[in-house]
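Reopening this ticket.

The earlier resolution said the output was attached, but the attachment link was broken on my side. Pasting everything inline this time so it's all in one place.
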Amino acid sequence: MTLVTLLPAGWLSHLANLARPASELGGPDHLLAWYPLSDILLHLCGLVTFAVIVIGVMIGYGPDITDPIVDLLITSVKQQQPEFMPDPAATAQTKSLILLMLPALQGGMWVTMLFAAYYFAVRIVAASGRGLRPREDIPSSLRMNRNSIFVFLAGLAACFFGGVPALIGATVIGTFGAGFMLSGFASLHFRTRGKDWRLPALILCYLASMLMLLPALLILVLGLGDTRKAIALTPTKDADTPKQSDTKI
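Inline output:
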């Protein structure tokens, strides 16, 4: 389980250090093209999805784990309000909802925390002067890969099949939904750049997204509607080295 838990973080670090000549992408010969941030986020969402599924299989996640939680909650409410009589249909619906919500929330929180750790790690390495990858402008470069939309829609469709496909679909919605929300917030930062009302508007958006569902969905839609790939470029080592003149006659 430890290996599965650390796999996304290790792979994220590996991808962040990948680069190739920009000429392979049709760019100048003297520049290096670093692995796109959008693809890094795509890999992160995919690996966290895989990790959550593996952990769920290992612990035997299912109604046997979540149903007692709902029953305990109902029992606690009954003790405080003896007149409370839960509807069996509503109770069954609540159990089904909790069963799907837990992997989605776990995956979404995992993606958010790992990307936050990546962001602060990049800042620390850049401040130390030892980093090779350039410090990217997150508001303008953090977007999800276009292919992520199809994965997200596939997860949404899987939720309607019930059973194991629904659990996998809920996990995909949680992880990739978190990725789209991160890109949505980045897009919001970029769109409000230079505005006088930027700071209070961003604070309000963050608070509203944490407390209410509708603002979070709007941020998600903003991320879904702004998918692209930005590639960071840096000069190669040879570009800074003066070439020796050919003195041979």
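Reporter confirms the inline version is readable. The two ends are 66 Å apart (CA to CA). Residues 2-237 form one domain.
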